[in-house]
Design brief:
With 143 residues, the chain is mostly helical. The protein has seven helices and no strands. The C terminus is likely disordered.
Length: 143
Amino acid sequence: MSIVVTAVLGVVWVLFLNYEQLADQFVVAIFPFYALAAAAVFVLRRRQPDRPRPVRVWGYPVVPLLFVVATFVILGNALREHPGGTGLAFGAILLGVPVYWWWLRTVDDPLRFAQNEYFNVSWIWYTLLILPSNGFGAPVAGS
């Protein structure tokens, strides 16, 4: 079933968006996750202060904070300048929230299930964002 959904979503994205729009959608949709990764540094340092830090964050806490703020400024500007495309990307991301909540309630042990080698929630993001291109920013042949 997931292969069919992936194929249908990929075809829809390629049919209705040109190369520039696909690239914009990808950047806008992936950027919030970069900001969340940088913000996770603050959360992990607060929740696990005694954990060893094999990699140090240069300029902590200023540099990660500046990155998070700059990311939200860039995303806000994208939403202001291109509300349709940006809103579509944010909407696609937000559609995953109720699916995630449903999944948490239906799976007995979500952590064990997510670590299963046959399960990967990133397939939906791959479908929505990367599948319409060849992964290198070039459109799929025939688009």
